[in-house]
Amino acid sequence: MGLRRRQILFIIGMAAGGIVAGAAHSLLNSSNANNADRNLDLSSDRSPEVNSSQQSTTNDPEQLSQQTNTANRKSKRGDKIAPEGLYAPERGDVRIVVISDLNSAYGATDYGDEVKKAIALAPQWQPDIVLSGGDMVAGQTILSPEEIQAMWDGFEKHVGKPIRDAGLPFGFTIGNHDASSWRSPDGGYLFALEREMASAYWQDPAHSPNLNFVDRAGFPFYYTFAHNDIFYLVWDASSDRIPDEQIAWAEQSLASDAAQAAKMRIAIGHLPLYAVAVDRDRLGEVLANADQLRALLEKYNVHTYISGHHHAYFPGYRGKLDMLHAGAIGDGPRVLLNSSLPTMKTVTVVDVFFDNNDTVYTTYNMADMSVVDHQTLPRMIVGPNGTILRQGVSWSDLSAAEQASSPHGWED
Ligand SMILES: [Fe+2]
């Protein structure tokens, strides 16, 4: 937790508050008008599931597209960039927009206003990439194939196509409402059809997320890609159990030259390692064996684990691992543990600074597009399987009473 981060968070905190929604609303309105024309016919043939590892090459059209995107980027490190009227953070070497938990009620084919606003605004932060913490559609219930297809059609219309049209790569992790990996006692997937249809959506070349894959053998459930000197590992945390084989794959991937030669490593999964939200503070809502998984990520110098599922924004860390708990932009924002703050839907802009290996989060409250003041967030969150601290807070900063309230102890 460098001094730089603390300084910037303080500045962000001072800037929080009344920064403007009017411009955002007008942008949303004009963008919605454009999006109205983006209804696709998805009845075309879908490609069969690809199950072979593909290594990227310089001839890879996706990689070439990536290079084009980077070349077309207008802003540079240090520029203050945001949609008009919003607080504009200093651009890092890499800028990432993080959205998560987009869905509405079970079976929904449309999205709430905050989702549409976030998607409309995302290109205007001029990010290099958009990441999603999962729950992009509203399954994990009894739905017909037609109903599941209608949800993915809705995702394509409101999220997938607008992001592609903006020329933005889209790295995502599968959530429990997209295609849960929850298994029955006989070992089969309880939501096998949802998994099949989520895979079909993402395997369709027309829906390419525009990623420079390093290993897509397990795509869309687990895969790796590289972008702007960052190596990304996505695992299937759509239930609390990541299979042993996949953990072995993750270790092999993180140990690879491609991963270790990158300037930074980021891992993404839907369930967090540790709890941050009320009513999600129980086993099953966090990854099993979180300490062991964290040790794996730390061993290979993963900087940050990005997750969703808890519907509450929290910039946390434990040990050497930063954890960006992305807030929801869809239905059901939740109250943070150890907090009396009202719920909020959020989108986070992450600026990555390679020279000091730092990341700076600027998180916007979708209600009024004000910036979340990190100082208002709890300094410590005690969950059922571990305690995490707010980034920038040290264990020694806590009072004796706070330290005593954590049954899990701490490690620096
Ligand atoms: Fe979820």
Q: What report would you give on this structure?
A:
The protein is α/β, with parallel strands linked by helices. It has one domain (3-41, 77-404): Purple Acid Phosphatase, chain A, domain 2 (4-Layer Sandwich), CATH 3.60.21.10. The protein has 11 helices and 15 strands. The strands form 2 sheets. Strands 4-5-6-7-8-10-9-15-14 form a 9-stranded mixed beta sheet. A 6-stranded mixed beta sheet has the order 3-2-1-11-12-13. The chain is globular and about 55 Å long. Mean pLDDT is 85; it is low at 1-72.
SSE layout:
Elements: H1 3-15, H2 22-35, H3 61-72, E1 94-99, H4 113-121, E2 129-132, H5 145-165, E3 170-172, H6 176-179, H7 192-203, E4 213-218, E5 222-227, E6 230-234, H8 244-255, H9 257-261, E7 264-268, H10 290-299, E8 304-307, E9 314-318, E10 321-325, E11 346-353, E12 358-365, E13 370-371, E14 380-382, E15 387-390, H11 400-404
Helix pairs in contact: 2-4, 4-5, 5-7
Bound molecules: fe (ii) ion.
Residues 135, 175-177, 270, 309 line the site of fe (ii) ion.
Order of helices and strands: HHHEHEHEHHEEEHHEHEEEEEEEEH
Which value, in Å, is the CA radius of gyration?
20 Å
* CATH topology (level 3) name: Purple Acid Phosphatase, chain A, domain 2
Please report the distance between the alpha carbons of the first and last residues.
11 Å
CATH superfamily: Metallo-dependent phosphatases
Helix proportion: 25-40%
* Poorly predicted sequence stretches spanning 5 or more consecutive residues: 1-72
Structural class: alpha/beta
Question: Which of globular, elongated, flat, extended, rod-shaped describes the shape?
Answer: globular
| Total count of strands | 15
